[in-house]
């Protein structure tokens, strides 16, 4: 299946808004001929402009190896429509299965497409994409599995985020927030408050 | 007004679940006779057990001064019922107003109560509370405004989180996720997927 992936650029000073509400993300990585994707509930913005992010990448993962070797990763904001795939790619190792192929027959494959600034794959079925370069901080990486990155390009599906704002069109699958044990929350009602 | 705050302890290895879905938090701090509270959208779990957290605390805030001086902070998960106060305490400095008093007459005061392991205040109207001790990492603090902490005690309102799981009772105000400009998402529908 080939999916048409609709995306528009997000201006970098607004890129933090793609993560500000705390969605679970997919981390894309590549080095040489190898590429991978894993789920991460532990990520957050770290700065506005230039935009920076922080993400925890366990030392035992293939993603860790590829991110350390390449100095790049993508953060992808999955839609509820691929919650099952999000859980799946967070539950197996890229050392054991190619998460982009359908060899398992279980239908948990995800689509990859190319970014513009990094070689790490961006993931289809997502609402937003951040292309990131690692800000090397070996002490954080070694001691806390904590990676910092600068966002060098950002994209969003205009049905979910446009003109710098989340604006979910009716019927558009929302972002998700992982809890534990296969349990998620969907991103809920938007509301505005004034002080 | 004195509020009865219902809370039960959360076992430490489950404390990450209070933040795993990416809610906006309130950061409580105290040093000497001074105390403060501010909002922070940029926090995340950093480890399971012992539980650790990461949070961004801007260098220009009173919170920063108090956290650096005391080596402690609380993370508090506000309910939608206090979204207005959450925005308010994130919009003014504790150097200008006492956010725990009602001198402004604007009704944006928050209630504070005592934790068990730290002197930083816990905040009323929240769903969960994490008492944290700073893990000193001066380079992260100075360069990225990034603070790491170990969670030394955790609590939750059993109407929202009990037995290690978020279980919002009907009618209970949910956690919130800040976007920008006074706009939030409420934590939405819970769902489970299986791989």
From TrEMBL, chains A, B:
Keywords of the record: Flavoprotein
Stored Gene3D superfamilies: Electron Transport, Fmn-binding Protein, Chain A
Cofactor(s) listed: FMN
Molecular function terms, GO-annotated: FMN binding; oxidoreductase activity, acting on the CH-NH group of donors, NAD or NADP as acceptor
Highest taxon of source: Bacteria
InterPro entries given in the database record: Flavin_Rdtase-like_dom (IPR002563), Flavoredoxin (IPR052174), Split_barrel_FMN-bd (IPR012349)
Transmembrane segments: none
PANTHER family in the record: FLAVOREDOXIN (PTHR43567:SF1), FLAVOREDOXIN-RELATED-RELATED (PTHR43567)
Full protein name: Flavoredoxin
Species of the source: Pandoraea pneumonica
Phylogenetic lineage: Bacteria, Pseudomonadati, Pseudomonadota, Betaproteobacteria, Burkholderiales
Gene designation per UniProt: flr_1
């Amino acid at each position: 299946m080939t999916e048409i992936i609709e995306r528009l650029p997000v201006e970098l000073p607004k890129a933090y808004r793609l993560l500000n509400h705390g969605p679970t993300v997919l981390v894309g990585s590549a080095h040489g001929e190898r590429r991978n994707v894993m789920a991460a509930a532990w990520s957050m913005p770290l700065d506005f402009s230039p935009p920076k992010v922080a993400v925890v990448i366990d030392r035992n993962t293939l993603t860790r190896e590829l991110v350390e070797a390449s100095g790049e990763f993508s953060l992808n904001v999955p839609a509820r429509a691929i919650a099952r795939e999000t859980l799946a790619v967070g539950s197996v190792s890229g050392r054991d299965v190619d998460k982009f192929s359908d060899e398992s027959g279980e239908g948990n494959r995800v689509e990859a497409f190319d970014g513009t600034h990094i070689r790490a794959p961006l993931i289809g079925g997502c609402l937003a994409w951040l292309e990131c370069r690692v800000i090397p901080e070996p002490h954080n990486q070694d001691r806390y599995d904590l990676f910092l990155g600068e966002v060098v390009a950002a994209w969003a599906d205009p049905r979910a985020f446009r003109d710098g704002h989340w604006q979910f069109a009716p019927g558009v699958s929302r972002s998700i927030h992982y809890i534990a044990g296969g349990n998620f929350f969907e991103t809920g009602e938007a509301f505005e408050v004034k002080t």
